[in-house]
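ZP: hey, is the 5-O-phosphono-beta-D-ribofuranosylamine complex queued? I don't see it on the tracker
AM: it wasn't, my bad. submitting now with these inputs:
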Amino acid sequence: MDTIKQLRLGVLTSHNGTNLQAIMEACKEGRLNALICVVISNNSKSLALKRAQRELIPAYHLSNFSHPTAESLDTAILNTLHRHKVDLVLLAGYMKLIGPKVLCKFPNRVLNSHPSLLPKYGGKGMYGSQVHRSVIEADEKETGITIHLVDGEYDRGTPIAQCRVPVFANDTPQILEDRVKLRERQFWIETLGNIALAREEGTNEPMP
Ligand code: GRF
């Protein structure tokens, strides 16, 4: 596999890291022409950090415990991404906002995935089972996943890819969450595959 144009990924994640795991496996098995260069978590005890360490991927705990001011944390994250020569930053279950320095140095190069069809069911407080509970309470017949560019607000940047997931009559929030998460792992890989391919071909799609 051609590694010259290989997409260099930096992943920020807070808890379980099942999306991280799926992306790591896709890279390792050659299903995705990309390399996870670094993993950063705000949660020192996260399973996500352990998953990265297990694969010998450099993994760092950077949070407001390690860096008490927002500015110093933003700088530390930026320096870590630069040190590992990251091209594209992925927020895969990262529960914090990204600082202005990282956003400025990675313009249109920070992506988040959100487990709904944004702009529906997004924004502050819309995470975890709350998203799926709201979808069921609103009697939606479908939900989905949105991968979008990140700006300074929760779940608000331009969507670059969306996929749909059905909601069935007897779904509980947990059942729906499991169905969406299963699809989300696959969808990250499909979307990153499209980005990697476009890059090899010298275009940008689906990125701006
Ligand atoms: C994902 O559903 C993501 O969309 C949301 O948090 C979840 C993270 O799951 N923001 P995991 O940590 O990758 O298992």
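AM: back. The chain has a mean pLDDT of 94.
ZP: great, adding it to the tracker
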